[in-house]
Amino acid sequence: MDGLTAIGVGITLGLSAIATALAESSIGSAAIGAMAEKEELFGKGLVLTVIPETIVIFGFVIALLMIMGV
Amino acid sequence: MSHAVKGGHGHKPVKTQVSKITVAGPLKEASRALSALASAGIFHPEEGKVTDRGLELEGMEDLADRIVKLKSLVELIGPFFKGRRVPKHQTLPLKDLKQKADQLLIKADEHVISLLEKEKQLNRDLEALKEDLQVMTNLNQDIDLGVLKSRNVFMAAGKMPTDAVKKLKEDLVAHLPEHVMISGFWDEGWSYAFIGVILGNSDKLKQMLDEHKWLGIHIPKASGKISEIADILKAQIRATEKVIHQARSQLVDAVASLYPNLVAVLEMLENYYRVVELAKYARQTKYAFFLEGWVPKSQKVALLKLMQKTDGVVVKEPEFDPEDAPVFIQHNKVSKPFYSVLSLVGPPKEGKFDPTPTLALTFPLFFGMMVGDVGYGVLITLMALLLKDQMNALFKSLLGKEFGDFSKVLLISGITSIIFGFLFGEVFGNLAHGLLRPILFDRLEGIVPLMVSSAVIGVVHLNFGLLIKFFQELAHSATHAILGVGSWFLLQGVVVLLALGQTTPGLVLLTISVIFMGKFEGIQGVLEIPGFVSNVFSYMRLAAIGLASAGIALAMNVLASMAGAVAGILVLILGHSLNLVLAILDPFIQSTRLHLVEFGGKFYTPARRHYTPFSISNKFTGGEMIWMD
Q1: Which CATH architecture has domain A3-67?
Q2: What is the pLDDT of residues B434-462, one digit of tens each?
Q3: In this structure, which of B158, B417, B500, B559 has its CB flanked by the most CB atoms within 10 Å?
Q4: Which chain B residues touch A51 with a CB distance below 8 Å?
């Protein structure tokens, strides 16, 4: 793997992780707000909060493809 | 009363298991009817009708006040009542119950609270005596303390860092030569001292002490030689301990006679209050009351009989929309704990499939694939077995009552983690490298087969979801099921054809399936095509989470091998403990998500609510509630 690919892999994974983090932070704080009103919403909040994790999974898959030189 | 009702299964659509009923009757019979409903424990009152002003029951005033008082009393004296059973009490009529509660409160005040206060005071005295004794025991001179306490002497008692004592002594010799100082060891790094100077030099001494980080301590009251005072204190401590022991046994006796009545009366009051809460769902006119709710179909006759016992009360069964009914489902022993995962979004809707039994298979499979380590698997299994109650309580408090048996899910998931651990050849990462050869492949070296197998699992699981949707639709419309849902299968056939290089038949099939999808699933269905691809990608988290877990374990092992023997073991324990917590939390969340979002998204429609019957507690009491004479 050359240097530029390595930087590309880093940017792909890093940016997709940041995107997930940003999305999860808004959903998470909204979920906590909802929970404060209605405690039994914890489960639903948890499921909704992890939804944007797919973004970083995409990043991970693309990064792997880049490493393998596809 | 038992309320066993057969519910929906994974193989059949969920059918309404409850009936809607309305109970109406004369206002004067309301308390009797509502008490009977609450006691039966099978009636689910209709939500959305609760207001601050429901039905007002005669005699309900002052109930809450007495409950709060009794509850705090039970909490206060409960620890002194151990290992004895509370006999069952007959429920008292409300009027007598209130009197009884007041009597108990007075009795508790007179007999138990005073003893509690006495014991507390004695313990405080004992602590003070022990502190005095500590002060008297370690001093370096055995002088008469009375000298320091005489009228013309100013005495200071305090502690300071041990290394400051010598400097203080030097300063005293230099600036206040006429002084008496005795000192001793207090505890680690600290010493204490008594210093006496003539009264006129008190300010000078105080100023000097401030410069030496001096902290004042309690000055023992006794006078006389220090060794004699210590002997007296020891005798006083022994005597006080004896009195405390006597006071404790008096207290335990008093609690033993009071506590059973107290908890029983509290339970009765709380049960009456539960009826007040049920009454909030009811409506009243000038002379009548009216309450709507749900009962399991199999319990309807029992409820009708129960209401017949109350004069003038009429029970009707109005028509209702099955979609509006609360869902009551029972599962078999194996699949029941897995229902907790579905309960996060709600029970399955009327006419839809309940996928709980399939979860019993796929949830532990996904969990095990993500953990994939014999070491962590064994620890998770052991935790689920040995800390069963604690884990159940933790999950229940965080995620709701459906998670009360979640340790079983963890137990099965722990076992699948062990199996996958053998397949991937992992024991706490690469700790058993060379000893345990992977049956399939090493995850960190076989990333491609791991990703491919995750995607294949995803395709199979999603198609299973589509298949459930197909049968769900088949019950309503065969055309819609075959052409609408079937177009999803056709589309996957297109991918296979294109991959095999069959471009023309592939494109023809693609056009047909998009047309069918547009017609039967709407434009939304067509737009969901890229969503299906992203769903498949989403299953790659099975590989990604597993790789992260294996990566952390490897990193901890490398770190440990770089550190010394002791530090290495510490790094191993701390690092793998952290990874174990992640190995429970993340696979749980991710497996739940795959089931609820990707898999469930294909067919699952949650209902608005569970069937939750209104009930009272019968732990210490039994019998009917009587509101009025």
Answers
A1: Up-down Bundle (1.20)
A2: 888 899 989 888 888 999 999 999 999 99
A3: B417
A4: 593, 597
